[in-house]
Each structure stands twice: as structure tokens, then as C-alpha cells.
Amino acid sequence: MVSAPFTVRTVLGDIAPEELGTCDAHDHVFISSPQLPGQELDSADAAARELAAFGAAGGRSVIQWTPYGMGRHAGLLPDLARATGVRIVAATGLHQAAHYTQDTLDELRGEGLADVFLRELTEGIGESGVRAGLIKVAGGFHGLDAHARWTMRSAAEAHHATGAPITVHLELGTGALDVLDLLCGELDVPPHRVILGHLNRSPDLLTHHQAAASGAYLAFDGPSRAHHATDWRMPDAIKALADAGFGDRLLLGGDTTTAGARSVNGGPGMPHLLRRVRPRLELAVGEDLVERTLTVNAGRAFGVRWA
To answer: Do the record's keywords include Hydrolase (predicted)?
Structure first.
């Protein structure tokens, strides 16, 4: 019996992992949350201009981590991908409880969260017909609350039914080992199917080493804010992982979450990853590793032999 090939599930259909090209492994084309009032990414025109700017900088694909109930506008993504030539991967999943009303959470409990994830991975998101290519969940600050454990158990169930990768928002970059203990230890998700986000926000090199040694992918995503130890420490963190033999566990992303952060509005936006982050990292670890991180690693992290 011939095994199914590994493919990445984009909004325009499944593709071979190498077709991703230069990939922003964590970003948002659309997103909204009561935690970010007035900063919604909900304009299709602004999204098109941002994707086009990323493409002009050499970008070829964007992995959108926006989960259920946070303004994904899944039905708009195929036309944006066609118009800009940038491949887009959509997400199912659930963020921290603070991003939802209690009524929404109660409805999801009644419907069965794993069933929602599974439906969006295999049938499509709402009426859009766009199938998700990953499951996004979130931890807490240095730990996992009951909501995080519920979402991660549901994500693990959907993963086992489909093979889909699980991406994890780590609050300020913390709690990586707790996440791995639950997902990979208790729930039997293979570590290479787990992508840990925001490791740059907590420059704990020992934790980085332990997480990479587990086999999980480590995403360094998003430019610095005043309270984040990101840009100026990230080259050292990535070099330490590369020197320890974990260059194949690295991913890079932009994580644009507010309208003001978009390049078309004067912020760094998606192009910043390739305009500024890439050359800075090339000085630390060389052009070859950065190129492989943006292309080969991303293809492997999001490529799935779909069940």
C-alpha cells in the first residue's frame, strides 16, 4: 500500500511542502479580539496590500494562526491568495478564554470542541469551504489553566484523527515544557507535530534547548516591543540552538496582530521579517541556515500526511 504524500493544506488546496517557498511561519491576515479594541485586522484591502508588500520582499507563503471566533474571514482568503500570489494556510483552534464570551465557550462545550476542530480541518470553516491546515491553541503565563487543558486535549484528539500540526501561543514565551508534558507526554502527540510560538519573548536558553531536544519546532515570531526581550537577543538564542545541532527545529514569523503594526500603516508588518530580521540573523548563523529555516523547516513543520 502506497502512503499518502506529505502536503501543506493551503486555502487554495493541498501543495507539496517545498512549494511553500519563503514562509512567514506565524502571522495574521485577519484577526480581532476584545483584548485589542480598535486594532482589528478586518480590511480586505489592507490585507491585500500587506500580502503584496510581503511578496515584493520575497515572501511566498504565510501561515495564519488566527483561530476560531477571532475574525478569520476564511471566505476572503482564497481570493487574496490568488490576487497576491502569496500562499495562505488557515487555522482552526481556540485561543485563551479572555478572547471569547462565555456564551461562545458554552456553545463550543456543548458542540464538542474536538468535533469543531475536526470539521474545520476536513470539511471547511463555516460556509467558506476553506479547510484549515493547522490547530492553534494557547498556554498561560508559566502554566496551563483548565481552559488551556481543555483546548489542548481537544486539539490532540483532532490531531490524532487527521495528523494536523498543533501550534501553540506561549504567553510571553513561557510554559513551553508544561505544554510538551501535556501534549506529547500525556496526550501522545508526536513532538515534531507541535510548534511552540513566541520563544523569542522569553530568552531562556536552557528551556529552548530542552524544547528543541524533544523534537518540537520552535517559532521565533514577532518584532520587539518595549517589554519583550526579542530582537536584540534573538540572534544569540538562534545561534545557541544551531550550535547545539537544532537548526532543523527553527521557524521564523512576523505575528502582526494590530492594524497599527502593519507595514501599510507605517509599522513593521509582514515585510519586516525579510527586510530586517533575516539579514540580522544571517550575520549570526549564516545565510544557509536562515534560508533553510524559512523554507525547508517550514515545509516540514506544516507538511502532513493527512489521514
So the answer is: yes
Taking only the tens of pLDDT, the chain with its 307 residues reads: 567 899 999 999 999 999 999 999 999 999 999 988 889 999 999 999 999 999 999 999 999 999 999 999 999 999 999 999 999 999 999 999 999 999 999 999 999 999 999 999 999 999 999 999 999 999 999 999 999 999 999 999 999 999 999 999 999 999 999 999 999 999 999 999 999 999 998 889 999 999 999 999 999 998 766 666 677 889 999 999 999 999 999 999 999 999 999 999 999 999 999 999 999 999 999 999 999 999 999 999 999 999 8
Is 181 known as a binding-site position?
A: no
Question: Is 192 annotated in some ligand binding site?
Answer: no
pTM of the model: 0.97
In a domain, 102, yes or no: yes
CATH code for the domain in which residue 259 is found: 3.20.20.140
How far is it, in rounded angstroms, from Cα 17 to Cα 194? 17
Is 99 within any annotated ligand binding site? Answer: no
User: Could you tell me if residue 77 is inside a domain?
Assistant: yes
Residue 160 annotated in ligand binding: no
**What total of structural domains would you count in the chain?**
1
Domain boundaries, position 18: 8-301
Q: Is 26 annotated as a binding residue?
A: yes
DSSP sequence for 6-25: PBEEETTEEE-GGGG-SEEE
Does some domain include residue 247?
Answer: yes
Q: Which helix (H) or strand (E) holds 287?
A: helix 287-292
The answer to whether 169 is annotated as binding is yes
